Amino acid sequence: MEETLKKITEFAREAHGDQRRKFAPEPYIVHPIRVMELCRQHTNDIAVLAAALLHDVLEDTSVTADQMEDFLVTVLNEKQAKQTGQLVIELTDVYIKKNFPEWNRRKRRAKETERLSKASGHAQTVKYADIIDNSRDIVNAESDFARKYLEECLAIVKAMKQGNKDLYEKALATVEECLEKVKIRYG
Description:
single chain; mainly alpha; Hypothetical protein af1432; 71% helix
Protein backbone atom coordinates (compact mmCIF):
# COMPACT_ATOMS: atom_id res chain seq x y z
CA MET A 1 0.00 0.00 0.00
CA GLU A 2 2.87 2.42 0.78
CA GLU A 3 4.26 2.22 -2.75
CA THR A 4 0.81 2.86 -4.20
CA LEU A 5 0.29 5.89 -1.97
CA LYS A 6 3.70 7.23 -2.99
CA LYS A 7 2.74 6.98 -6.67
CA ILE A 8 -0.58 8.72 -6.02
CA THR A 9 1.18 11.42 -4.00
CA GLU A 10 3.58 11.99 -6.89
CA PHE A 11 0.67 12.25 -9.35
CA ALA A 12 -0.99 14.84 -7.07
CA ARG A 13 2.33 16.68 -6.63
CA GLU A 14 2.78 16.93 -10.40
CA ALA A 15 -0.84 17.98 -10.89
CA HIS A 16 -0.56 20.80 -8.34
CA GLY A 17 2.83 21.82 -9.74
CA ASP A 18 4.08 25.08 -8.27
CA GLN A 19 0.82 25.92 -6.48
CA ARG A 20 1.22 27.29 -2.98
CA ARG A 21 -1.18 27.23 -0.05
CA LYS A 22 -3.24 30.41 0.21
CA PHE A 23 -2.95 30.88 3.97
CA ALA A 24 0.33 29.07 4.70
CA PRO A 25 3.79 29.55 3.18
CA GLU A 26 4.21 26.03 1.81
CA PRO A 27 3.82 23.97 -1.37
CA TYR A 28 0.22 22.93 -2.00
CA ILE A 29 0.96 19.19 -1.87
CA VAL A 30 1.53 19.29 1.89
CA HIS A 31 -2.21 19.86 2.36
CA PRO A 32 -3.47 16.69 0.61
CA ILE A 33 -0.73 14.68 2.35
CA ARG A 34 -1.91 15.94 5.75
CA VAL A 35 -5.54 15.24 4.80
CA MET A 36 -4.59 11.68 3.87
CA GLU A 37 -2.68 11.21 7.13
CA LEU A 38 -5.68 12.42 9.13
CA CYS A 39 -7.91 9.95 7.27
CA ARG A 40 -5.35 7.20 7.82
CA GLN A 41 -5.80 7.54 11.57
CA HIS A 42 -9.37 6.27 11.02
CA THR A 43 -9.28 4.02 7.95
CA ASN A 44 -6.95 1.89 5.86
CA ASP A 45 -9.27 1.92 2.85
CA ILE A 46 -6.93 2.63 -0.07
CA ALA A 47 -9.69 4.31 -2.09
CA VAL A 48 -10.37 6.77 0.73
CA LEU A 49 -6.67 7.49 1.25
CA ALA A 50 -6.14 7.94 -2.49
CA ALA A 51 -9.14 10.28 -2.68
CA ALA A 52 -7.71 12.30 0.21
CA LEU A 53 -4.48 12.77 -1.74
CA LEU A 54 -6.37 13.72 -4.90
CA HIS A 55 -9.32 15.62 -3.41
CA ASP A 56 -8.35 19.01 -4.91
CA VAL A 57 -6.91 17.80 -8.23
CA LEU A 58 -10.08 18.24 -10.30
CA GLU A 59 -11.01 21.49 -8.60
CA ASP A 60 -7.64 23.23 -8.59
CA THR A 61 -5.61 21.85 -11.52
CA SER A 62 -5.99 21.23 -15.24
CA VAL A 63 -6.21 17.45 -14.72
CA THR A 64 -9.50 16.01 -15.97
CA ALA A 65 -11.50 13.20 -14.40
CA ASP A 66 -10.57 10.95 -17.35
CA GLN A 67 -6.86 11.69 -16.94
CA MET A 68 -7.05 10.99 -13.22
CA GLU A 69 -8.93 7.74 -13.75
CA ASP A 70 -6.49 6.67 -16.49
CA PHE A 71 -3.71 7.08 -13.93
CA LEU A 72 -5.61 5.38 -11.10
CA VAL A 73 -6.13 2.14 -13.05
CA THR A 74 -2.34 1.85 -13.31
CA VAL A 75 -1.86 1.78 -9.54
CA LEU A 76 -5.16 0.43 -8.13
CA ASN A 77 -7.44 -2.41 -9.11
CA GLU A 78 -10.44 -1.43 -11.22
CA LYS A 79 -12.90 -1.30 -8.30
CA GLN A 80 -10.57 0.82 -6.14
CA ALA A 81 -9.77 3.15 -9.05
CA LYS A 82 -13.46 3.66 -9.78
CA GLN A 83 -14.29 4.27 -6.12
CA THR A 84 -11.41 6.75 -5.76
CA GLY A 85 -12.53 8.62 -8.86
CA GLN A 86 -16.11 8.79 -7.60
CA LEU A 87 -14.96 10.10 -4.22
CA VAL A 88 -12.83 12.83 -5.80
CA ILE A 89 -15.79 13.87 -7.93
CA GLU A 90 -18.00 13.99 -4.82
CA LEU A 91 -15.38 16.17 -3.12
CA THR A 92 -15.06 18.61 -6.01
CA ASP A 93 -17.02 21.81 -5.50
CA VAL A 94 -19.90 22.20 -7.95
CA TYR A 95 -21.36 25.55 -6.88
CA ILE A 96 -18.41 27.73 -7.82
CA LYS A 97 -18.38 31.31 -9.05
CA LYS A 98 -17.36 30.26 -12.57
CA ASN A 99 -20.44 28.02 -12.89
CA PHE A 100 -22.87 30.27 -11.00
CA PRO A 101 -21.63 33.86 -11.46
CA GLU A 102 -25.06 35.32 -10.72
CA TRP A 103 -25.10 33.82 -7.21
CA ASN A 104 -23.33 35.42 -4.27
CA ARG A 105 -20.91 33.46 -2.10
CA ARG A 106 -23.51 32.82 0.60
CA LYS A 107 -25.89 31.12 -1.85
CA ARG A 108 -23.10 29.08 -3.48
CA ARG A 109 -21.79 27.91 -0.09
CA ALA A 110 -25.32 27.03 1.09
CA LYS A 111 -25.86 24.89 -2.03
CA GLU A 112 -22.44 23.28 -1.58
CA THR A 113 -23.25 22.50 2.06
CA GLU A 114 -26.53 20.90 1.00
CA ARG A 115 -24.73 18.87 -1.68
CA LEU A 116 -22.07 17.67 0.75
CA SER A 117 -24.74 16.67 3.29
CA LYS A 118 -25.82 14.01 0.77
CA ALA A 119 -22.29 12.82 -0.08
CA SER A 120 -21.18 9.32 0.80
CA GLY A 121 -19.76 8.58 4.23
CA HIS A 122 -16.29 8.05 2.73
CA ALA A 123 -16.41 11.43 0.95
CA GLN A 124 -17.58 13.10 4.16
CA THR A 125 -14.71 11.49 6.07
CA VAL A 126 -12.21 13.02 3.64
CA LYS A 127 -14.02 16.36 3.84
CA TYR A 128 -13.75 16.33 7.66
CA ALA A 129 -9.98 15.91 7.34
CA ASP A 130 -9.84 18.63 4.67
CA ILE A 131 -11.74 21.04 6.91
CA ILE A 132 -9.51 20.24 9.90
CA ASP A 133 -6.37 21.00 7.93
CA ASN A 134 -7.76 24.13 6.27
CA SER A 135 -9.05 25.43 9.59
CA ARG A 136 -5.65 24.97 11.22
CA ASP A 137 -4.08 26.99 8.39
CA ILE A 138 -6.54 29.85 8.19
CA VAL A 139 -6.71 30.48 11.92
CA ASN A 140 -3.04 31.51 11.81
CA ALA A 141 -3.42 33.67 8.73
CA GLU A 142 -3.61 37.41 9.07
CA SER A 143 -6.97 37.62 7.34
CA ASP A 144 -10.37 38.88 8.34
CA PHE A 145 -11.77 36.30 5.88
CA ALA A 146 -10.95 33.60 8.44
CA ARG A 147 -14.13 34.12 10.47
CA LYS A 148 -16.43 33.83 7.44
CA TYR A 149 -14.56 30.77 6.17
CA LEU A 150 -14.66 29.03 9.55
CA GLU A 151 -18.37 29.75 9.94
CA GLU A 152 -18.93 28.15 6.53
CA CYS A 153 -16.84 25.14 7.61
CA LEU A 154 -18.86 24.80 10.79
CA ALA A 155 -22.10 24.70 8.78
CA ILE A 156 -20.64 22.09 6.43
CA VAL A 157 -19.41 19.85 9.24
CA LYS A 158 -22.74 20.07 11.07
CA ALA A 159 -24.54 19.08 7.85
CA MET A 160 -22.39 16.00 7.21
CA LYS A 161 -23.29 13.15 9.56
CA GLN A 162 -22.41 10.03 7.56
CA GLY A 163 -18.60 9.98 7.79
CA ASN A 164 -16.29 8.54 10.43
CA LYS A 165 -17.75 9.57 13.80
CA ASP A 166 -14.40 10.17 15.53
CA LEU A 167 -13.13 12.35 12.70
CA TYR A 168 -16.47 14.19 12.66
CA GLU A 169 -16.04 15.04 16.33
CA LYS A 170 -12.45 16.14 15.72
CA ALA A 171 -13.53 18.35 12.81
CA LEU A 172 -16.32 19.93 14.84
CA ALA A 173 -14.00 20.61 17.78
CA THR A 174 -11.22 21.96 15.55
CA VAL A 175 -13.47 24.37 13.67
CA GLU A 176 -15.14 25.58 16.87
CA GLU A 177 -11.74 26.11 18.55
CA CYS A 178 -10.33 27.95 15.52
CA LEU A 179 -13.46 30.09 15.22
CA GLU A 180 -13.19 31.07 18.87
CA LYS A 181 -9.53 32.11 18.37
CA VAL A 182 -10.49 34.23 15.37
CA LYS A 183 -13.37 35.87 17.25
CA ILE A 184 -11.00 36.79 20.08
CA ARG A 185 -8.45 38.16 17.62
CA TYR A 186 -10.85 40.12 15.41
CA GLY A 187 -13.78 40.67 17.73
